[in-house]
Design a protein that fits this description.
heterodimer, A: about 200 residues, alpha/beta, 5-stranded parallel β-sheet, 5 helices, 9 strands, B: about 220 residues, mainly alpha, globular
């Protein structure tokens, strides 16, 4: 079964020790919510789990799962390309053939437009990032504040797709400051303010 | 390189081509630098015939600095736009390197196609051995693209990219320039040339490409 295991992970930024001896396991088919105050390390925990960030000590092992996709504030799309070109590019990187129009319908946006992504509203860009995540069909979904900048309809679509992804066997980690997002979570991890010792 | 990496590299090349075509900033910087440099040098010599050796050296100096103006943005522009993190998440490191290297080579070839006729006209120079000149340029640009792409990746997180890039690139590409200048001189004059120089350039290009491939994996 696909799973991600963090084993005795420690990570510091300068003198600030964010995580010490953190051990966690994330299984496929579940949405795990990560909550905590600003600076508690929600985004950092997601990056560690996705191996985007390396721990100072300890190990992160991804069992079975092969591919990771993410919707995070840091991960940007290509402003000079249209939505369909962005989708086709990222899908090609993962060897997938996709239909941009169909993905557009799933996230509630018309992706057949010739408008470049740089001219999209913040909410539409967020929907495009989520459509890219759906297009690449990865085993692990890293979602950092995925519903920020979305209207109510957009939030409903995202949460429905997240539930559907979990049913499809994805490992889904969802960091959020919005309690409404937690309705799709099977488990919730609350990180202490400022990080801490998890021994 | 695995087939999947090759397809990824092709996708990155295509994406860079589309973005480059729409933004044109990198190509415009290279073209404007080379035009300004050639025009000012041509005007300053005022119609005096220049020794072929010096002419060949001038051509490669212009190519080097024009390339520097464009290549440094290969990774820098992506990092500034925030897309580099996304690209690294979805693509294999080797695919990123070779996709960008191929695009850099294509950009340099396009620049040279634009630059060479202007250079020859303004300096009133003729080419006696066109195939030798084309082969020399192709091999020289391949080496610059290989070394330049890795250097651009190395300097992307440096705070003084503009100054660091040419400083790091020049010593690595120097072994390309020496035979390239000699071969370009032979191509301009029609004199006999040393085939060993062509072989040396092929060999050094191969070393640069393999070394870039090996070293790039250590950058993350």
């Amino acid at each position: 079964m696909n799973k991600i295991r963090l084993e005795s992970v420690s990570l510091s930024f300068g003198r600030r020790e964010l995580f010490k001896n953190l051990t966690l396991e994330f299984s496929a088919g579940k949405v795990v919510g990560v909550i905590g105050r600003n600076g508690s390390g929600k985004s950092t925990l997601l990056k560690l789990a996705a191996k985007i960030l390396k721990p100072d000590t300890g190990e992160v092992n991804i069992h079975g799962a092969q591919t990771v996709a993410a919707v995070t504030p840091e991960m940007k799309i290509y402003d000079a390309l249209t939505a369909a070109e962005n989708l086709n590019f990222f899908a090609k990187l993962r060897g997938k053939n996709i239909n941009p129009a169909e993905l557009g319908r799933r996230v509630g946006v018309d992706f057949e437009t010739e408008i470049r992504a740089g001219d999209f509203s913040t909410g539409m860009r967020q929907r495009l990032k989520f459509a890219i995540l759906l297009a690449v069909d990865a085993d692990v979904w890293i979602l950092d504040e995925p519903t920020s900048n979305l209207d109510e309809a957009g939030r409903e679509i995202f949460l429905r797709e997240i539930k559907s992804g979990a049913r499809g066997g994805k490992i889904i980690l969802l960091a959020t400051n919005d309690a409404a997002d937690l309705e799709v979570c099977d488990e919730v991890i609350e990180l202490p303010a400022g990080g801490g010792d998890f021994s | 390189m695995k087939l999947s990496n090759f397809l990824q590299a092709a996708a990155i090349f295509h994406k860079d081509f589309l973005v480059g075509l729409r933004r044109r900033a990198a190509f415009a910087a290279m073209a404007m630098f080379s035009l300004t440099a050639i025009a000012s040098m041509s005007l300053s010599v005022g119609g005096i015939l220049i020794e072929p050796k010096l002419l060949a050296a001038l051509l490669w100096v212009v190519i080097f600095f024009a390339a520097g103006a464009g290549i440094s943005g290969t990774f820098e522009d992506e990092a500034a736009a925030g897309t580099l993190a996304t690209l690294k998440l979805y693509a294999a490191p080797q695919a990123v390197l070779f996709g960008k290297m191929a695009f850099t080579l294509a950009s340099l070839l396009a620049l040279t196609i634009f630059l060479l006729p202007v250079f020859l006209i303004l300096f009133d120079a003729a080419v006696a051995q066109i195939f030798l000149l084309l082969a020399t340029i192709l091999l020289g640009l391949t080496g610059i693209a290989a070394a330049g792409t890795l250097t651009a990746a190395l300097t992307v997180s440096a705070s003084t990219k503009g100054g660091l890039f040419p400083i790091l690139l020049f010593p690595v590409t120097l072994p390309i320039f020496l035979p390239a200048i000699s071969l370009t001189e032979a191509a301009l004059t029609g004199a006999e040339f040393a085939p060993e120089f062509l072989l040396a350039m092929i060999f050094y290009d191969a070393i640069l490409t393999v070394a870039s491939s090996i070293l790039y994996d250590f950058l993350d």
